[in-house]
Request: fold
Amino acid sequence: MSASVLDMSMSLDGYIADPHDFLGGDDGERLHKWADPEDESGPSSGPAAQFQEEWNAAGAVLAGRRTAELMDHWGGDHGGLPIFVPSHCPPGPAARWGYPLVTYVTDGIESAMAQAKAAAGDRDVQVRGAYTAQRALEAGVLDEVQIHQIPVLLGEGRRLFDVLPSQIELEIIRVIDTPEATHIRYRVRR
Reply:
């Protein structure tokens, strides 16, 4: 059965980006360093390879409009996956005419998730974007949360869980500790 999974790297103080939408550090990529090891001698191994396999096994992406536009809709597909974008406004020209795998859904987060899950079949739906994750939690359509907690304090920026409707209980289903990050996967309790 398909699961919707928010998968985000986050600083210890809860930020997913700095105030300018960079991921921290001098090169703007501090929060993603764990996924791209400095050793260029070969393909990733260990936890980084495991997460890459999970990402590659997904069947669709549900991304917030802001995230999708910042990423230029990943060039029209997310590694070949269809992208569903919940939005109250019509898409810009690139998404409308140049990206056939990008679908803007204007009738709510529930509909966007249903369409993403239908497209994914029995594979997972990757969820991207803090606002969209918050709305998916609020609507009860987010199944799991995977956080790659990075040992850095950014001090300011964009928080992952800024506004939630109420307390949401999570169940820890996996913890992988590495020198670069602690990877925690949770199931949303209903």
Q: What stands out?
A: Residues 109-120 form the longest helix (12 residues). Strands lie at 4-11, 15-17, 60-63, 83-86, 102-105, 125-128, 144-150, 158-159, 170-177, 182-188. The helical segments are 46-56, 65-70, 93-98, 109-120, 130-139.
